[in-house]
Design a protein that fits this description.
single chain, 480 residues, mainly alpha, globular
């Protein structure tokens, strides 16, 4: 049984128009999204410069996501103690410094270290920005606010692939990180000028150092253990890392039961809509995390496309996500959250599988159109997840819920990259290939598609009237 919903945030002080705040928060996320998508098209070139195989470059992606997964659990506590606006701006500064260091690296280990610093800043940008929205926007405007926030984020994913392809083709991949500097400076000024000072709803809880340490060890060892399985490293070390990570996670669960304010509040899983969104969204995000890693490699290595051609095709996903903004709110109002997640979830999963059948001689317009459809259905699905998760969360627990949800979101994206790299490596070993072939990529895409399809069971577990207050959908007796 779900906890009672608190009253809307109407009693809070008057804040600027929610669309203004949402767009500015989205601009910070723009940095993250563009950085991720622009990097994807450069991975093969970077692998050549660093003297490693293309699959080995997955650690450059997972190291960033690892920093996010480790630090996001404390984002709520840090913002409560030091102020959301101050933390939000500081995170942008750290992100920019990390970007500059990334551009100066000449080896994969140095890139991993710089990406960890960059992830330290990124760990605060998205969750603290979302926390600002959750604390300033009335629930009846929450769906619309999330949509406005995602517009700059989608523009970032749109600009990334073609920009990355252009930079790799005509300049040097290091410029990928330099372009973060002017955007970050602009974002810093916008936050200082327009984002209000948002006060926490109560006295900050004591910081859970033991819980944070257990979470960090658990998540770090699990992710690097999974990463090791995809590399030519000693399997004993990989198994040891996974075992240590699993033990630390189990220890944290036992620790959290005895602490009033743990680093990650597991009691939030008692809220039905939050728990189901976490489980189903996690399964879908494993596939979402694998696709940005696998697709550029498929296009450039499996099909022999140039970095510029690859970036132009990947642009279709972002364009589709942008088009989805025009229909998502209406769709959720028309058929409700549950039915949208059930049926659209299947379409989103199958859209991943389409990539497995790409051929080098397919027309550009056909591949572009299929990837655009993929972007539309994926955007609808994740907008639904990001909104329904907070439907029944009390206002005074929003910070904890946001940290928990953001942690799982980044963790699953990291696991998705690890799974994609591991499956690709296994497929290569089975076919005795030193470099991945198109068939190897096809196997990887089909396996991760099966993972996302398994989320359908959890979509069906949502209450028929879940999210009706957020979407405006009127539940009818025949809805199921």
């Amino acid at each position: 049984m779900e906890e009672k919903v608190d009253a809307p945030v109407a009693s809070q002080p008057a804040y600027p128009d929610y669309r203004v705040i949402s767009l500015i928060v989205g601009c910070a996320i723009f940095l993250e999204q563009m950085d991720g998508t622009v990097l994807a098209t450069a991975l093969p070139t970077m692998a050549h410069d660093f003297g490693v195989t293309a699959p080995a470059m997955s650690v450059a992606v997972t190291s960033y996501l690892l920093a996010l997964a480790i630090l996001i659990p404390v984002s709520g506590t840090i913002s409560d103690r030091f102020g959301t606006k101050r933390v939000f701006n500081s995170s942008m500064v750290v992100f920019i410094i990390g970007s500059i260091l990334c551009s100066l690296t000449h080896s994969l280990p140095a890139m991993v270290a710089a990406r960890l610093l960059q992830g330290t800043g990124g760990a605060m940008m998205a969750p603290v920005g979302r926390l600002i929205i959750l604390r300033t926007v009335e629930r009846r405007h929450l769906v619309s606010s999330m949509m406005w926030t995602l517009i700059p984020a989608v523009l970032g994913t749109m600009a990334g692939p073609p920009l990355g392809g252009f930079i790799v083709q005509y300049l040097d991949w290091r410029w990928i990180f330099y372009i973060n500097l002017p955007i970050g400076v602009l974002g810093f000024w916008l936050v200082r000028r327009y984002v209000p000072v948002v006060h926490s709803t109560g006295k900050p809880a004591p910081f859970d150092w033991l819980g944070f340490s257990l979470c960090s060890i658990g998540l770090g060892c699990l992710l690097f253990g999974l990463e090791s399985f995809g590399e030519n490293t000693d399997l004993r070390n990989a198994f040891m890392l996974v075992a240590i990570g699993a033990a630390a996670c189990v220890a944290y669960v036992r620790h959290a039961k005895r602490r009033a304010h743990p680093a990650v509040d597991l009691t939030l899983l008692r809220i039905d809509s939050f728990r189901l969104s976490v489980i189903s969204g996690s399964l879908m995000r494993i596939t979402q995390g694998a696709q940005p890693f696998l697709l550029p490699l498929l296009l450039q290595i499996g099909l022999g496309f140039s970095a510029l051609h690859s970036g132009q095709l990947i642009l279709a996903i972002s364009l589709g996500a942008l088009l989805a903004r025009a229909i998502t709110t209406r769709l959720l109002r028309w058929i409700g959250f549950r039915r949208a997640m059930v049926y659209n979830g299947v379409l989103a999963s199958l859209s991943y599988a389409v990539c497995a059948f790409f051929q080098a001689d397919w027309p550009f317009w056909l591949m572009f159109g299929l990837l655009m459809i993929c972007g539309v259905v994926m955007s609808i699905q994740f907008t639904a997840y990001n909104t329904i998760a907070y439907e029944a969360v009390p206002t005074d627990r929003m910070s904890a819920a946001n940290s928990f949800y953001s942690t799982l979101q980044q963790l699953m994206l990291s696991i998705g990259v690890c799974c994609g790299a591991l499956i690709l490596k296994i497929a290569m070993a089975t076919s005795h290939n030193s470099e991945p072939s198109r068939i190897n990529f096809s196997v990887a895409f089909l396996v991760v598609t099966a993972i996302s399809l398994s989320s359908t069971r959890w979509h069906r577990s949502f209450a028929p009237d879940a999210g009706h207050e957020l979407s405006g959908h009127r539940h009818r007796a025949g809805d199921h």
